[in-house]
Structures are given as C-alpha cells and as structure tokens.
Amino acid sequence: xxxxxxxxxxxxxxxxxxxxxxxxxxxxxxxxxxxxxxxxxxxxxxxxxxxxxxxxxxxxxxxxxxxxxxxxxxxxxxxxxxxxxxxxxxxxxxxxxxxxxxxxxxxxxxxxxx
Amino acid sequence: xxxxxxxxxxxxxxxxxxxxxxxxxxxxxxxxxxxxxxxxxxxxxxxxxxxxxxxxxxxxxxxxxxxxxxxxxxxxxxxxxxxxxxxxxxxxxxxxxxxxxxxxxxxxxxxxxxx
Lengths: 114, 115
Known about the structure:
heterodimer; A: mainly beta; six-stranded mixed sheet; four-stranded antiparallel sheet; 0% helix; B: mainly beta; globular
C-alpha cells in the first residue's frame, strides 16, 4: 500500500487479556517505530527497529510489552496481561532511514482496556 | 518530567490571521526540532523542522523560529486557513548516545481556524 497500515484500528479488551497490534510499514522502509499516545499526553517512544540491527527497546514501559519485526517488514506489538493504564493510541511509523523528517505514521490503533 | 512542553492545549484564530504555536524544551542536548500536524483519525505528518544551528526556517505559509537561549521555539502560520485546523505537535531530537532517531514530543496544541 501507499502508506503505513495498522490493524486493528480499534481494539477493546478486558483487563488481563493479551493483545496483538499489527503494523505494515511502507515497502522499502528500513526503519520502524512504535509510539503511543495516552490521553492528554504527547507521543511516547516505545521501540525502534532498523534493518537487521538489534532493536532499541528502551521505551517499552514493562516486560508485558514486546515487539517483533519479521523479515524486515511487518511488525507486531504484543501486550500481555493488559492493564487499564495501557489504554492509548498506539502509533507505528516507518522511514527509509533514521531521519525524523522522513517519518511516516500510520493512523494508529485505539486500545481500550476495560 | 516533560522535556518538551506545549503549554497551550488549544488556540483559536480567524481565517487570514496569524497563528502562533509555542513550544518550550528543557534538554540542552536537543539539536533538531520538528513540528508535526495531526488530523483526527490520522497519524501525524511532518510539517517543518529546524536545526539548532539556525534560528529560522521558512516553508511557504509556515515559519519556525528557534530561540536557543530561551529554549523556545514557535510555529507561525500566515495566513491561517480553515484547513490548518488540526493538532500540532512539537518534537525534539537529542544528539547524544547515538539515538538520533528518537523523538520527544509535546502534548500538542489544537488549532482551530474559524472561517
């Protein structure tokens, strides 16, 4: 597709359940980012993938959060045993390199944990 | 502790007038600043940026000013148009530790341009 695609666009889950959020980056983009935006907050960096390098996971808020990127393309963000404070918009972005000017965001997944 | 602050959650201006969105930062290691624009149900899109070695960058109706001594930047939109109505995020990049891909974002300012 032409842009970054995220699915689902909305996800409602019960506290304690696991969720998987998917991101399809722009074809050919080597860098992939996950950010989240909690209500009333700015975008918060979660994780960064660049090519075959080890990802920068320094933004993941707890060990309940994990992410992988298969084949240098599609990425999945997994949240285990969801908590209400995990409710947020989860945004994926890709870029052809590390320059933040070239960051293209998807429209996000709105996660609601009841 | 918020390193990038946008103290005005919202701003309303008349079409044709100037919109000024402000952003303050605390980290002196930031070397590159960006503004992103976000419409509802869409992801943020890059608008304009400025390096810390400059004090002004202009692109059409959009100008970003940087005052390093005050750790302050502003985005000017002249003339404002109704289509500019969106949330504007200020973001900054640090230059230490090799993590020049990480951005720190402010909370955003909702701009409404009234016809």
